[in-house]
Design goal:
With 271 residues, the chain is α+β, with helices and mostly antiparallel strands. The chain is 24% helix and 33% strand. Strands 1, 2, 3, 4, 5, 6, 8, 9, 13 and 16 form a 10-stranded mixed beta sheet that branches. The chain has a 6-stranded antiparallel beta sheet with strand order 12-11-10-7-14-15, covered by helices on one side.
């Protein structure tokens, strides 16, 4: 049984056309079962709990990164498979708010329907931050925060132009897979910590340089870890950004979660 959960922003009329195309496609593919919609009257937690109670085997998120993250936190470790049909909040295309779909090998909403029908399933790691889950990344912009890795060493930025990124998925840059396969793999039971410039274009240049040149010395900026403790170095609490939209206050404990996620992926996934 497939349950399709629509984000609340899709109730706007401008999404009627793409939703009609999606529903026509899943009907043709024989995978249209139940469609439920988020609203101010019923929380996403209630929708997911009700779907699981009624025997949902596959929950398909229709929305963006934020939608997906909400539902990941409700199904982590449960015997259910998660799919994603990405729709941008402002316009129908893949960009930073649908970076998760890109990493999973999903390029547009209609292709996503075909991927869900093909049903290639992978089990991946989740990051855990203070008993909450994240699927993609944690960004640490505050240079006053202390980042301790695996109880062995500390990582810090050298300038205010840098930040520290903790990744389960890869940063949004095309990498040489052959030389980068030991990094940014959500099935390897590690997180990657990267000291990176705040300018995304500069990060892309650094990672491309490293992964396309095996003799590069920039590997020192990438660390594979299992546990991270983040504390403020003064009496004030600091904050980090999780999956590009949630803010958490220190102190924080981050780790590779014991709970896994079963997810439908495309053939062009990035891991």
């Amino acid at each position: 049984m497939h349950y399709y959960i629509y984000d609340q922003f899709l109730s706007h009329k401008k999404f009627d056309k793409i939703l009609a195309q999606i529903e026509s496609k899943i009907t043709d593919l024989g995978i249209k079962d139940r469609i439920i919609k988020m609203s101010i009257l019923k929380s996403v937690s209630e929708l997911v709990t009700d779907a699981l109670r009624k025997g949902a085997q596959t929950i398909v998120v229709v929305g963006n990164n934020q939608t997906f993250n909400q539902i990941v936190n409700l199904v982590a470790g449960k015997d259910v498979i998660l799919g994603l049909i990405p729709i941008e909040n402002n316009q129908i295309k893949i960009n930073s708010s649908n970076s998760i779909a890109n990493f999973l090998g999903v390029n547009n909403p209609i292709e996503a329907c075909e991927i869900i029908s093909a049903r290639k399933i992978e089990t991946i790691n989740l990051g855990e931050i203070n008993n909450d889950f994240f699927i993609d990344n944690v960004k640490i912009y505050d240079s006053n925060l202390k980042v301790e890795c695996d109880n062995k060493y500390n990582i810090s930025t050298l300038t205010f132009n840098n930040l520290i990124g903790v990744y389960n998925f890869s940063p949004q840059v095309e990498l040489n897979f052959k030389s980068s396969k030991k990094f940014f793999n959500p099935q390897d039971n590690f997180l990657e910590v990267v000291v990176e410039p705040k300018d995304k274009n500069a990060l892309n240049k650094i990672l491309k340089s490293f992964f396309n040149n095996s003799k590069s010395k920039k590997a020192d900026s990438i660390f594979r870890v299992k546990k991270i403790i983040i504390k403020s170095q003064n009496q004030h609490s600091g904050s980090v950004v999780v999956d590009n939209f949630k803010v958490f206050k220190t102190p924080l404990n981050i780790k590779v979660s014991d709970k896994k996620l079963k997810i439908i992926v495309g053939k062009n996934r990035k891991f």
